[in-house]
Amino acid sequence: MKKALLAGAALNLVFAGSAFAEMTIGVAGPMTGQYASFGEQLRVGAEQAVEDINAAGGVNGEMLKLSIGDDACDPKQAVAVANSFAGEGVSFVAGHFCSGSSIPASQVYADEQIIQISPASTNPDFTDKRPGEGIYRVCGRDDQQGQVAGAYIAENFPDAKVAIINDKTAYGKGLADQTQKYYEEAGKKPVLVESYTAGEKDYTALVTKMKEAGVDLVYVGGYHTEAGLMARQMRSQGMDTIIMSGDALVTDEYWAITGDAGQGTLMTFSPDPRKNEAAAPVVEKLSAKGQTAEGYVLYTYAAIQAWADAVNAAGSTDYDAVVKALDDGTFDTVIGELAFDDKGDVTLPGYVVYEWKDGAYDYVNVAEGTDMTKPGGDALQPAEGVDTGATETKSN
What we know:
Number of strands: 16
Distance between the termini: 32 Å
Radius of gyration: 21 Å
């Protein structure tokens, strides 16, 4: 049953003597729990986007109000959050973070005709099997990320003994599987493939197993907390094994866990949006507040920008009209000019390889003066011979 077209009840607020309507939108992610640092990234980006959009006059003359949903990266809790948003009458949600939350929540959003744009969920099934046309993401996909990681390991560590491990989540296992696929397509074979349980504190048994196998590089399909603990436990056993992982390590909390044990950790992530000229004013505003634009802050901001521009183009929050505007439009955002393909995936540069050094992460072996914000051509230049995945993300 089609839900009401207005995003939330229209409330009359008075600003400087003028009456404004107000519409509620949502942001959802792990606001509590072990992945709360990522929920914080989504919240910070959403709050800044709402503040800036309202300062510019709102969306179709209506002020935005932000509702924050905490799913703790738990699928059942994510569905509860989605139903709560539906009860509030929201027409749009920026979220969720974990693919294991976004995928079940997307069914609720499709049923209730709520637009969902995830800033961070990378599992291919999120868009390949989306339950409705109003499901999108502004980040890349694990099959792109895994291709870059698998090729990078094969070409830069050709003689290394490689382990590939995963935390059994939709995100972690999906990412590890894709990395293994492309690593093996390059003619290589891991010496160890294992799963571990997220949330534990002691990975000594797994670390010992890797030590006995002489592992030179371990690819971790999982999140920063567990990867950080493994880094410390490997170093405590005298191992100098290189750790590589995905975009779930793009938080300063990773280094807070590892300290010097995290030195040299590799990870894949999209080109750093903080280096995008269009993002500079937002980065400065956040800095003035003592906040950072790390990780998925700007991706969340961009998701809200794209939705707001689509609503303005549609002239209303009517679901079908906004979906059409998102499908047909091109949007100037803080992460660059973007559009969506017929699956809801975004057309932006793919993934590049980063390295953690001295408490910060930056590109690996990028040619001086390279513009990392533009897709295709010579935009992305990591280590020689490595496929960066810097192509549009349209799926064949």
